Amino acid sequence: MDKLIAESLKNSIEAKQALYSSQLQDIKVLAQWMIDTIKSGNKLMFFGNGGSAADAQHLAAEFVNRFLIDRPPLAAIALTTDTSILTSVGNDFSYDDIFAKQIRALGKKGDLVLGISTSGNSPNVLAAIEVARQMGIKTAALTGGSGGKLKDTAELTLNVPSKMTPAIQEAHIWVEHLLCQIVDEALYGKGVTP
Fold first, then answer.
1. What pLDDT sits at residue 190?
2. How far is CA 167 from CA 19, 23, 54, 81, in A?
3. Which terminal CB of the chain, N or C, has fewer other CB atoms within 10 Å?
4. Four-way CATH pick for 19-93+110-117+135-188: 3.40.30.10, 3.40.50.10490, 2.70.70.10, 3.40.109.10
5. pTM
């Protein structure tokens, strides 16, 4: 058990360090895109499947409610939460369309979408990114491993260069929290942390 715990910690740390050292500039670019989106009165839209869906919801909650400082709510939505929309689109059309249809309905130029896919190959995430690009909406992705097809589909991809799914997902939540903090401080200063 001790060996397993140590190995898990090592993999998690290595994945975060690899993301930081290989993509620091892109992290800053994505943070600036988020800042610009909010400042211009537009919204952030997040989506993914499974654990990535949970990340999308977590990230939206941090923006709408608060992260570390008390500040006004920021416009963000997870496209993973409305079961009636998800199941009706999946049933009537295709599961591959569940996010793309929502972007068509809710998105507009000036918004920013962030698709989250550990493999980078989730068909519904890819379809949503493609629709957003067609609509002139900024597109970003969080991926892992090779980056999959998303790496070449989204305008900006933060790819965790690891083959360990848990380590990739842990790096995703780390960078998601980091983005929240950067946006908060850029818009409202450090404020008072709880």
1. 80
2. 11, 16, 16, 25
3. N
4. 3.40.50.10490
5. 0.94
